[in-house]
Amino acid sequence: MKNINKSIFRLLAAVLLMSANILYAQETVAAAPVVDRPIYEELGMSPTALASVMVTITLILVFFVASLASSAKNVLEYKRGKTNGTIKTLLVLAAFSFGTDSFAAGTTGEYMIDFPDAAFWAFLTLDVILIVLVIYFAGIIRGVVSEYKVPSKLKFFSRWNRNMMDAVPVEEEAAILMDHDYDGIQELDNNLPPWWKYGFYITIVWGFAYLVYYNVLNAGPLQEQEYLTEMEEGDKADAEYRLAHPELITPDNVTLLTDDASISKGKEVYITYCQTCHMENGKGGVGPNLTDNAWIYGGDIKGVFGTVYNGAKNGMVAWKELLPATDIQAVSSYILSMEYIAPPNGKAPQGENILE
After folding, report:
1. More confident residue, 331 or 154
2. How far is Cα 245 from Cα 242, in angstroms, rounded to an integer?
3. Do residues 309 and 320 touch, judged by C-beta distance below 8 A?
4. What is the 3-state secondary structure (H, E, C) of 260-293?
5. Who has the most CB within 10 Å: 133, 170, 332, 337?
């Protein structure tokens, strides 16, 4: 007990000495590392803010040290009898000394507190010592408490763990030793752990409930239906994203649109930009007839979109510079939905008939 008190006294004496050194922080600047700028500027803080942070951290550590020291004192008194009040007195002195030293630098300059580098390093050293004290007192408490019996609550969990494992004590393993071995390796006839069996029973109950819920009552979608639903939602989200980002639609990934809204939009684009050359309803004029099965540059959605998108050798401009890709996709889909207009009302076929 005396040795413990002596060790505690030495540690606390070091704390008091370090706290006292803060009073002379202004005169001991040379002891701190030399930097071009003050530490509080390096940290992007004002000296007042840095001082507040360091004071707060150190006060918290002092509180923990005081609490752990009191607890260590109590457990030691319980185990070995009463001790003197040296620990508590030293801690109170340390806390008081720290409280007065935290503003040792004064209030000079443009800031409320002028917090020099020396004070920062002193506080940091003090914090390290306090952390050592926290670890020291925690070790004392843990060492003393571990010598006593396990509380009743912990006994309950210990018994529960033993029952769930159903393990045979090592000294009784001879009773379950099997009469064969292989290369000196012997086998024990242990029971399956109850936790494993209970888990297996739960999976059986869960499987039965799953069968009734999905296959008997049809209360939820099966995996195939969930997959199809998710694919539909994914396609819808993909279409919405492409609509919001028309630059992503290219001749390589364009798809045919068949909904009324898209066809109507494509018709508006056609009337505005395409009808001048291809005439009304696509029967052909300067440009070829768009309603027959003959195509110069391809008659599927990729071919039509690519022709409109990149332009053509016959003088058709590249509309990708003038229209968003969504409009080109809509008008290409509309072109493929046009009704056939035969000659002489429509222009004679040009290009290759895709049906032949």
Report:
1. 331
2. 5
3. yes
4. HHHHHHHHHHHHHHHHHHHCHHHCCCCCCCCCCC
5. 332
Residue among 42, 12, 39, 34 nearest 119 (CA): 39
Whether 318 has a pLDDT exceeding 70, the answer reads: yes
- Residue tagged 């000079």 (tokens): 108
Q: For domain 248-353, say whether CATH 3.40.605.10 is its number.
A: no
Tell me which amino acid residue 208 is. Answer: F
Average pLDDT over every residue of 182-188:
84
Q: State both tokens at 18.
A: 């370090």
In single-letter form, the type of residue at position 198 comes to: Y
Q: Is 338 exposed, middle or buried (0-12, 13-18, 19+ CB in 10 A)?
A: middle
- Cβ atoms of 48 and 102 within 8 Å: the answer is no
3-state secondary structure 62-93: HHHHHHHHHHHHHHHHHHHCCCCCHHHHHHHH
Location of structure tokens 């005439």: 279
Kindly list the domain boundaries of the chain, sorted by start residue: 2-145, 195-244, 248-353
DSSP string, 329-345: HHHHHHHHTPPP--TTT
> Which residue did the predictor score with more confidence, 100 or 226?
226
User: Under a CB-based contact definition with an 8 Å cutoff, are residues 65 and 127 in contact?
Assistant: no
Give the single-character DSSP code of 258. Answer: -
pLDDT per residue over 5-44, tens digit each? 555 555 555 555 555 554 444 444 444 444 456 777 777 7
- Say how far apart CA 161 and CA 158 lie, in whole Å: 5
* Average pLDDT for 277-303: 89
